[in-house]
Amino acid sequence: MDLKLLKNFLMVAKTGNMTRASAMLFITQSALSKQMKELEAEFGCTFFERIGGGMKLTEEGLLLRKRAEDIVSLVDKTKQEFRDIEDIIGGDVHIGAPETCHIDIFARELLAFRRKYPGLRCHVISGMTEQVTEKMDGGLLDFVIISGLPDTDKYNYIRYPADDIWGMVVRRDHLLAAMDKITIDDLLPHNIIISTQGLSEEISGWCGDRANELKVTDTVNLAYNGSRFVRENIAVMLTYKGLVDTSPGNGLVWIPLYPELSTPTYLIWQKFQVFTPIVEKFLEHLIRAFKKLNQVIPNND
């Protein structure tokens, strides 16, 4: 399959119009239309549904778009890696990370590394653990920060020098806002918002055999969006400390769970992974720094 053909397909998918796409690609509309028909013939399915004056992706087209985006990104990343081999003072590193208030630790180490290697460019993709590890497995990320225990059969890892602490975010005028800790009995009468990852792993373990008693009405993958639901009094939200602004005057408060629940965080990378020289040096820097910090910083800092 021609990479250029995939890029042209993505342009048609983006614009939803063969005329606009051909103009942006600087080819004739007839030539682009022929390419799309050849692509459909190669896979034996239809990727576009023609509606009115435009085009809409079919279910098969949506799948191809996702795969094509990954393929194009991987090729671009590979080309950049070959260029970086000759440029030890610079290059690109691709990181995956969850929502965590402790990302500042990574940021400080990036800054420290750049004092010696100012040409390093860092690209961060945010997502839940399953999302970022899937991208790393596909070759799109060099290493990722994850919440929870790593799969030691697949990945090398080092403990990130901080844990995330679970609690509840509520409006300051909520009846639970004055409490200094929240138990499962406190949560039971209320609608709850939580991330799907947290519900299936940490919170379920914390609740034990009472997990099914929780009234989980909504799920989110970004704490900020969940906080807007809380502001509208739709539900209370279970989330990590520090992800939502609970400073005085903003109308929200975070209260820790009891018994305390914390989630360990790890930096992981694929076993037998081959890195560009600059990425390998950065990873070595992070390992040294995290080992040192793990000796002096409590896990719940």
TrEMBL record:
Superkingdom to which the source organism belongs: Bacteria
Q: Does the keyword Transcription regulation apply?
A: yes
Gene3D superfamilies, alphabetized: 3.40.190.290, Winged helix-like DNA-binding domain superfamily/Winged helix DNA-binding domain (1.10.10.10)
One Gene Ontology MF term: DNA-binding transcription factor activity
Q: Which PROSITE patterns match?
A: HTH_LYSR (PS50931)
Please name the SUPFAM superfamilies in this protein's record. Answer: Periplasmic binding protein-like II (SSF53850), Winged helix' DNA-binding domain (SSF46785)
Q: Which GO terms describe its cellular component?
A: cytosol
Domain HTH lysR-type, chain residue ranges per copy: 1-58
- Which UniProt keyword terms apply here? DNA-binding, Transcription, Transcription regulation
UniProt lists the family membership as follows: Belongs to the LysR transcriptional regulatory family.
Q: What is this protein called?
A: DNA-binding transcriptional regulator, LysR family
Q: Which organism is it from?
A: Ruminobacter amylophilus
